[in-house]
Design a protein that fits this description.
The complex is a heterodimer of chains A (104) and B (198). With 104 residues, chain A is α+β, with helices and mostly antiparallel strands. Chain A starts with a strand and ends with a helix. In chain A, a hairpin with a 2-residue loop joins β1 (2-6) and β2 (9-18). Chain A has a three-stranded antiparallel beta sheet with strand order 1-2-3, with helices on one face. A two-stranded antiparallel ribbon of chain A has the order 4-5. Chain A has one domain (2-95). Helix content of chain A is 57%, strand content 29%. Chain A is rod-shaped, with a radius of gyration of 30 Å. Chain B is an all-alpha fold and 198 residues long. Chain B folds into three domains: 13-57, no CATH class; 60-163, no CATH class; 168-198, no CATH class. In chain B, 75% of the residues lie in helices and 0% in strands. In chain B, α1 (13-33) crosses α3. The chains are: A alpha+beta (104), B mainly alpha (198). Chains A and B meet through α1 and β5 of A and α1, α2, α3, α5 and α6 of B.
Chain lengths: 104, 198
Amino acid sequence: MAWHQQGTRTYYYRSVRIGGRPVRRYVGAGPAAELAAAVDELRRLERAIEAREQQAEQAQLREAEAPLLALCEGVELLTRAALVAAGYRRHDRGEWRFRRAIAD
Amino acid sequence: MTGENGGSAVPSPTERECGDENERLARLLKRAEQGDHDALPELRQALDADTRLWRDYGDLALQAEAALIRVAAGTNLLLAESLQRKLHALKRELTSESTSPLERLLVERVAATWLQSAYGDAVAAQAVSNSETRSKMIQRQQDAAHRRHLTALKTLATVRKLLRPVPSPVQIARGLDRSGQTSQCDRVALASTVPAAN
């Protein structure tokens, strides 16, 4: 979004993407253009606030999730250790199979 | 808290202690999986003798639960209390007197992942009017929580099937005696006398 000066007058243009390419669209001049620019600025602010809120929410969730992820990782390791200690082997990352020779 | 500044969360002392134990166990496990028979007794000893290992993970489970309750309930203390009670009931339902320390940990994990999954569902249900980016983010989190919960359940079922000791005829007779009080866990144990496929 931008103002462009030609001679003594300024014109407001809006940038939009059409088919992936940026295109500059003429909006107007004078009070109507100022109103359109204010609306665009407000939308930009709203998007920035939303993005910041989303980032804060993500950070909060990541922080809350950290002990759970550590627990999952550790318990998975303990389970594997317990199964191996009991004589089981995982077959092709799938089911656990008992191997008597190992258990004895 | 460093997350706001773009850094990763600093691990708590419990997480660090668990991390040290993890490394030791992982080394032993790797040796055992590569066919080193000398590693097996060490592995068994590490699992049987070191009660600190189970205690540390128990503490971590409590931390995980508390953190998730804080996020889900926010400042609503009634909801926080209700969630705590619900988790307690769920854990009681899944454990019995004969539950091993490993199974207890797995049950703790099932309870914590259930809470995260339920919270994800609730957030997704309320997110109808949200932007596309936010909806996608919520969907991704919900899917991850569901996968984590299913993995937790599957691991618990596998351990119950493969690592429960085979009951003696006397225990079976006792179980039949108190058939009115037999819990779901006991029934699973009785049904899994042949540890073959899982």
